[in-house]
Amino acid sequence: MRGRRYLFAFVLVIIVIGAAIAAYVFRDDLALARSGAAATTGTVPPPADAHAMPMPAGDVPRGDVSIDARRQQLIGVRTAPARRTAIAPSVRTTGTVRYDERRQVDVNVKLDGWIRDLYVDYTGQPVRRGERLFTLYSPDLLATENELLLAIRSRDQMQQSQVPDAREYADRLVEAARERLALWDMSASEIATVERTREPIAAVTVTAPANGFVSEKIAVRGSHVMAGQTLYKIADLSVVWVEADLYEQEMALVRIGASAAVTLEAYPDRAFRGRAIYVYPFVGEQSRTAKVRFEFANAERLLKPGMVANVELRGAEHAGLTVPANAVLDSGTQQIVFVAEGDGMFTPRRVKVGQRLGEEVEITDGLKEGEQVATSATFFLDSESQLRAGIQNYEAVPGAQGTGGAPAGPPLAITFRAQPDPPKTGENTFEVRVADPNGAPVSDAEVSVQLFMPAMPTMNMPAMRNESKLTPVGGGMYRGPGQVMMAGRWEVTVSVSRAGRKAGSQQFALAAK
Fold it and tell me: Which residues of 358-423 form beta strands (DSSP E)?
């Protein structure tokens, strides 16, 4: 089961990378359309919504996204409502069937001797309480039997004595001998037989102290045994334990008495019901898991110690808000959903995630019941959202604008183009034409071109920035080499300064191949 989780995580990573690359290509398509508009008008179309979602410091900024119905159909955007439902969180893990340690018995003897007859002679043999296991010859036991017979004869002789203390002493001798035989596990029936027949039993019978199965056998016919030596281990399998490992984050679902279901590969269509009876008081330093013990009735003896079991543990049921799991984008530090506001508008919203329930996930904060969220193409939406926020916040990026004071006089007319068009990765030639409001060329300016690409967390890529200084070539034209570090959409800012003061700036879009 753990191996399947790791495989699932690996496949999910591959899907995420593929979606991010597809999102990147989708951004390039948008960039081409915008670059065409910029070449014609000299401006970049403003974002659909100027209000980006507020994010805490250190988080990736995102803005609202507007996508028409045709584009939604092309990229496969689907939505689903946040719905309130009964949530019963569950944990699935694997465990091992084990003996109930409280139902195991060790069979040994309390004195030295030799095994004569062996009645239970193989491991796994079922036995019942009182059933014969073997016979034992012991000189010490035989001597004590003879002591009992002597005490009985003395007691019989003292019955005619006129001294009460003598009769009482004889009775105590008999009782002491009888008690010693009982403490050495000689059965009451055998003691009674010795007293009745007035003959000692050479080899006494040792019986099973409990019902169960022989889980370990050391006894061999004719072998010498010593006091305290284990000869059999008997385990009662009417109740067994299943011990499973749970990760630290799953421990909140465990409580003593919680019900659990177990399935086995041997019986795939059958579930066994049990309950948690003990949680180990420590966590493994290497595995970061804690063991939980479950108890299961096993009247049919289907659960056999050593079996591997699939364990499902369910927590207490409560009402909660859920959305499809693929609606939530998790960057590790924040969880985002895109809420459909209508008319093709999607707003990024931070949410808090609770339990993951198969194909759905619980939302504990950030959504209301009935709100529609995007459940597919979310990586496309996230890529465009970050792009929108990057455009909106670009003016606030240090170094994005030229140095010096505010532009003086009417705005300048600035056009930009790259050679080749579209530009390639590596060195290209940038050309800028600058004219005053009357159309006259401006030849005494200082012109710089800055390229900027926003960060793309989905591809683990930081923001990139590059700046080039252009040389005047006459007639208001400025030309110079510019480096494009990678293919994709770049935001271009052309800054113009005259006499050390900023005279104007213009933003463009550039799609490099």
Answer: 360-365, 372-374, 413-419
Tokens 């859920």 correspond to: 322
- 361, 323 Cβ separation under 8 angstroms: yes
For the chain, domains (ranges, CATH) are 48-88+320-392 (2.40.420.20), 91-101+237-314 (2.40.30.170), 109-229 (no CATH), 397-512 (2.60.40.10)
Q: Could you tell me which of 316, 317, 296, 323 has the C-alpha nearest to residue 307?
A: 296
The residue type of 88 is: A
State the burial class of residue 75 (Cβ atoms within 10 Å of its Cβ: 0-12, 13-18, 19+): middle
Tokens of 454: 């926003």
Q: Report pLDDT digits (tens) over 454-499.
A: 766 555 667 788 899 999 988 889 999 998 888 888 889 999 998 8
CA-CA distance, 454 to 393, in Å (whole number)?
A: 10
- Strand blocks (E) in 34-124: 65-66, 79-81, 83-87, 90-99, 104-107, 113-118
In sequence order, what are the beta bridge partners of 263? Answer: 310
Angle at 468 between CA 467 and CA 469, to 5 degrees: 130
Q: What is the 3-state secondary structure (H, E, C) of 297-333?
A: ECCCCCCCCCCEEEEEEECCCEEEEEEEHHHCEECCC
Beta bridge partners, 338, equal: 348
Q: How far is CA 300 from the centre of its chain?
A: 34
Q: Which residues contact residue 339 at a Cβ distance below 8 angstroms, ignoring those fewer than 6 apart?
A: 346, 347, 348, 349, 367, 371, 372, 373
3-state secondary structure 344-361: CEEEEEEEEEEEEECCEE
Instruction: Please state, in angstroms and rounded to a whole number, the distance separating the CA atoms of residues 22 and 376.
Output: 13
Separation of alpha carbons 82 and 57, rounded Å: 28
Task: Give the DSSP H or E segment for 497.
Answer: strand 488-498
Whats the size of the chain, residue-wise?
513
pLDDT tens by residue, 189-209: 999 999 999 999 999 999 999
Helix (H, G, I), strand (E, B) or coil at 73: helix
Q: Read off the amino acid at residue 436.
A: D
Contact 335, 50 (CB under 8 A): no
Beta strands in 101-150 (DSSP E): 104-107, 113-118, 126-127, 132-137
The mean-pLDDT minimum among 18-32, 50-64, 66-80 falls in: 18-32
Tokens matching residue 19: 């979606």
Is the Cβ–Cβ distance between 352 and 366 less than 8 Å?
yes
DSSP 456: B
First to last CA, the chain: 45
Give CA separation, 250 vs 79, 132, 257, 333, in Å. 30, 49, 16, 20
